[in-house]
Amino acid sequence: MSTNAIEGIDAITYSTDRWDDARRFFADWGLTLLDEDASQQVWETLNGAQVIVRRPDDASLPAPIEEGPTLREVTWGVLGVARLDEISAALKGTPGFQDLRSS
């Protein structure tokens, strides 16, 4: 697998029931609120990556790795489908890995 296949983080998804604290925290860090409704907050960083905040009981999220507010998902940017195929093959079978293209 090529070491330069991954461009960086496109988005992270974080879960918390402390909705107002999350809004204050990400605003204090200088992120821009793009969208908010009862189920999620979508923030943008200075480099264009997104931070998505969802409720802990959101059934669409992967299982939490620890109790309380926590990171639930990371979306990585890659340099094309061929590189994505390489990475998927290398990670297949590792705990927590999901290739959502086949869903």
Describe what you observe in this structure:
This protein is α+β, with helices and mostly antiparallel strands and 103 residues long. Helices cover 20% and strands 33% of the residues. The protein contains 2 helices and 5 strands. It has a 5-stranded mixed beta sheet. A hairpin with a 5-residue loop joins strand 3 (40-44) and strand 4 (50-54).
Structure in a nutshell:
The chain has helices at 19-28, 81-91, and strands spanning 6-15, 32-36, 40-44, 50-54, 70-78.
| Coarse shape | globular
Strand order of the largest sheet: 2-3-4-1-5
Question: Can you count the helices?
Answer: 2
Distance between the ends: 24 Å
Quaternary state reads single chain
Proportion of helical residues: 10-25%
Beta strand count = 5
- The whole-angstrom Rg is 15 Å
Report low-confidence residues grouped into runs of 5 or more.
none
Bin the strand percentage: 25-35%
The H/E string reads: EHEEEEH
- The average pLDDT is 91
Top keywords for this entry?
five-stranded mixed sheet, 103 residues, 33% strand, 20% helix
Describe the SSE topology.
Blueprint: E1 6-15, H1 19-28, E2 32-36, E3 40-44, E4 50-54, E5 70-78, H2 81-91
